[in-house]
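Retro notes, item 3 of 5
We never archived the inputs for the flavin-adenine dinucleotide complex last cycle. Fixing that now. Sequence and ligand:
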Amino acid sequence: MSNSSLHPDDATESLGGNVCRCTGYAGIKRAAVDSISVFENGKSGERNHLENLITLNFIPHYFRAIKKQLEEISEGNKSIEKKSSVVISGGTDLYVQRWENLVRGKGNLISQDKKLSGISKTGKQINIGSATTIEEIKSSKLLQKYFPQWNYYLSLFGSLPIRNRATVGGNIVNASPIGDMVNILLALNSTVHLKDGKKKRSILLKSFYKGYKSLDKRKNEIVEKISFQIPSKHSFFNFEKISKRTYLDIASVNSSIYIELKSGKVTTIHISAGGVAPIPLYLSSTCNYLKNKTIDTETIKNAAEISSNEILPISDARGSADYKRLLLRQLLYAHFIKLFPQLVDPEKLL
Ligand SMILES: Cc1cc2nc3c(=O)[nH]c(=O)nc-3n(C[C@H](O)[C@H](O)[C@H](O)COP(=O)(O)OP(=O)(O)OC[C@H]3O[C@@H](n4cnc5c(N)ncnc54)[C@H](O)[C@@H]3O)c2cc1C
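Structure as it came back at the time:
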């Protein structure tokens, strides 16, 4: 409702991810679309959305007090910050995993910390504050400028309500092998910047994961920001995600690629693979093999063969180990078919 113009598609998009268990989606969608005209007619010149929504009986009057209540919680939180070791950012992983411990407990709520939020460019480097939300990253004009498909890639992450809460820092520290943001950042050869008070250090993201949910992060360290080099003019990037549903689902397997070419040869390459190992994986051997190679069908087949030796998928609800092996091979092929259709022959790959 805070968009400058209201469109039925925005209403549908905003409802995404809210699962209805009692009625039907058609009625809810109709109500959302109808409410646009009521809202448009009732708008005050000052566009005070909260007051408009209360006046039009969309929300109860006690919503007026919520902003102040949240500010008071944040203020109270500052005094307990030092004592509490649980860092809570968007809470989209934590409140699912450990809600009973956290809901009345104390935590270090960092999502309101402006110093940890935002996207900037310094020299040839892009910096993303750890508390920046996935939706902010998705709609960043700076990132869209360097990665034309950026908005689409991140539309595959959760739903709008989740993207509005979920942060990049949470995605990295949660260390899920199928995290989407971490998968993209691995292929951008990102650096994680950690801090504990005034002590700071940086580590390559690909060296951050030691084992399943085990990180090179000390107890009191928090992730301050993530950085990576702006892509070269001769670079190509792609992200692929396979899940049981195209949208609103976590990946079975995902993969990203960043590649730079000079005179037809690969000069720089980074490939990530999710869902095929206990950690978000950087495919080192596959990248080493592809360096200085010319891209053709045979080379890509060999690269896929090498990748199958550096993964260790397990069978679970998202598919058998063999199926995930097959998926990763297909995703690697998909990267090259999409990025270099003139250099690889899809018929011969299969
Ligand atoms: C319905 C639903 C759909 C989802 N869909 C997707 C999806 O499509 N793709 C995907 O990748 N994920 C998905 N997720 C998972 C989740 O949204 C992401 O992993 C998200 O990025 C976590 O961020 P957060 O800010 O909510 O983390 P939180 O839950 O706040 O924290 C997660 C962990 O990170 C730690 N942490 C957070 N920030 C920092 C920091 N700055 N420094 C140190 N530690 C920190 C916390 O202590 C905690 O251990 C989904 C989750 C839900 C509930």
